[in-house]
Amino acid sequence: MRFYARTRFLFPRSFQLRAFTVCFGAVHLPLIAFCVTQMVVNAWDWQLFLSLLGATLVGTAAGIAGLSALLAPIAHATSLLRAVQRGEPIGPVPTGGEDLVGALLAGVSDAAAETAARIDRLAEAAERDVMTGLRNRRGFMDAIVPLLNDDRSSVVGMIDLDHFKGINDRFGHREGDRVLRAFGERLERGLRRTDLAARWGGEEFAILLPDTDLDEANKIVNRLRVTLNGEGFGVSPNGPVTFSCGLAIVRNYASLTGAMHKADVALYDAKRAGRDRVIACPDAILAE
Questions:
Q1: Which domain holds residue 51?
Q2: Do 180 and 262 fall within a single domain?
Q3: Same domain, yes or no, for 86 and 169?
Q4: How many domains does the chain have?
Q5: Backbone angles phi, psi at 253, to 5 degrees
């Protein structure tokens, strides 16, 4: 480090040029020594001088080219590290040998892999509900977009646990949290692998059933409702915990927001009709 620090005045912004300068001086030492000797004895052997000069120039060119090639992996590793620091994805990192450059490239590869994994974990955590492990509102909206790029029928549903406030008021928030976690687990388990489920907020949940018509979606959610009623995963002041759900076909509306609003309206219709039921919004083309 001392030599590195003391030579920083040579091209302080370019390590490559500094290394070239040091090598250039080292390569020319024999020629300089020859010239000094010839001056001291006051006798010039021009044939030998020209031979040394030619060999020095060729050696200098070869040394610079070789050193440039040897330093290329370090320059590449530096650019990769800067990309990693910026959080940018990088391509495959070349592997080196069992030398200093190989160790540097291996370190860059490990740092890139760890950074990418950390970013993935943070992104996943940002889109997950801490309590239930389901997607949160942001995660649901991000995941739903690629599923709506075609013209296939998809159904969105809004679900609300019945009398949930009474659970918190009578049994405490710890029991309410347990009911939310239990429902989240059963909701995800009861849907198909292609379906999406999210905790929308509080005791409200959202689902998307892609490539599904309204009748099939109604059957799927009702089957889940009956199954949960039979399991009795929680108790409210009014008896076993149940849920109400509203469904709407996404493509029947001008936007996803419009479809979710109609599903929410159907949900409140289910609440007013006595709860513990599924109501599908009547078909409407491009309605808001």
A1: 2-122
A2: yes
A3: no
A4: 2
A5: -130, 160
The token duo for 145 is 């977009």
What CATH number is associated with residue 191?
A: 3.30.70.270
Q: pTM score > 0.90 for this model? A: no
Tell me the two tokens of residue 213. 């018509």
Which residues does the annotation mark as catalytic? 203
For residues 160 and 241, is the Cβ–Cβ distance under 8 A? no
Are 89 and 194 members of one domain? no
Judge whether residue 52 has pLDDT over 60.
Answer: yes
Neighbour count for residue 65 (Cβ, 10 Å): 10
Q: Measured between alpha carbons, how far apart are the two ends of the chain, in Å?
A: 70
Half-sphere exposure of 130 (CA within 13 A, CB side): 2
Say yes or no: 161 and 117 in one domain: no
72 part of a folded domain: yes
- What is the distance between the alpha carbons of residues 197 and 61, in angstroms, rounded to a whole number? 66
Q: How confident is the model at residue 140 (pLDDT cuts 50, 70, 90)?
A: very high
Instruction: Check whether residue 112 and residue 157 sit in a common domain.
Output: no
| 215 and 164 fall within a common domain | yes
Do 115 and 57 lie in a common domain?
yes
10-33 tens-digit pLDDT: 667 776 677 777 777 777 777 777
SS3 of the chain: CHHHHHCCCCCCCCHHHHHHHHHHHHHHHHHHHHHHHHHHHCCCCHHHHHHHHHHHHHHHHHHHHHHHHHHHHHHHHHHHHHHHHCCCCCCCCCCCCCCHHHHHHHHHHHHHHHHHHHHHHHHHHHCECCCCCCECHHHHHHHHHHHHCCCCCCEEEEEEECCHHHHHHHHCHHHHHHHHHHHHHHHHHHCCCCCEEEEEECCEEEEEECCCCHHHHHHHHHHHHHHHHHHCCCEECCEECCEEEEEEEHHHECCHHHHHHHHHHHHHHHHHCCCCCEEECCCCCCEC
Tokens coding 117: 């994994």
